[in-house]
Specification:
Layout (H helix, E strand, L loop, with lengths): L27 E8 L2 E8 L12 H12 L3 E8 L6 E8 L2
Antiparallel strand pairs: 1-2, 1-3, 3-4
Keywords: ATP-binding, Kinase, Magnesium, Metal-binding, Nucleotide-binding, Transferase
Protein name: inositol-1,3,4-trisphosphate 5/6-kinase
InterPro entries: Inositol_tetrakis-P_1-kinase, InsP(3)kin_ATP-grasp
């Protein structure tokens, strides 16, 4: 994984690769584990903000994912953008 700050940083990348916008999120990653209608939420440190939440909606988010994906056992990594407080799902792990 690389954080690229400008076009010069693209010279060090070898395709194929995936690009994603970095979102400032106060260095907190929320890990949600879902088992049917139950959920468990944990936090872990993440990358610091790159410039010179409210978790009450996480239940609604994980429940919507459960319904839309049609699965009952999964984990979700979520960050909350500092400025807008928007949620960003960055990883979903399905358990067999």
């Amino acid at each position: 994984m690389s954080v690229i700050f400008n076009e010069d940083g693209l010279q060090n990348i070898n395709p194929p690769c995936v690009a994603q916008t970095f979102v400032n999120h106060n260095a907190t990653l929320y890990k949600i584990f879902k088992l049917g209608s139950k959920q468990y939420i944990g936090q872990r440190p993440s990358l610091k903000n790159l410039y010179a939440g409210d978790v009450s909606r996480l239940n609604a988010l994980s429940e919507t994912l459960r319904e839309k994906l049609g699965i009952d056992l999964f984990g979700v990594d979520v960050i909350v953008e500092c400025e807008t407080k928007r949620y960003a799902v960055i990883d979903i792990n399905v358990f067999p």
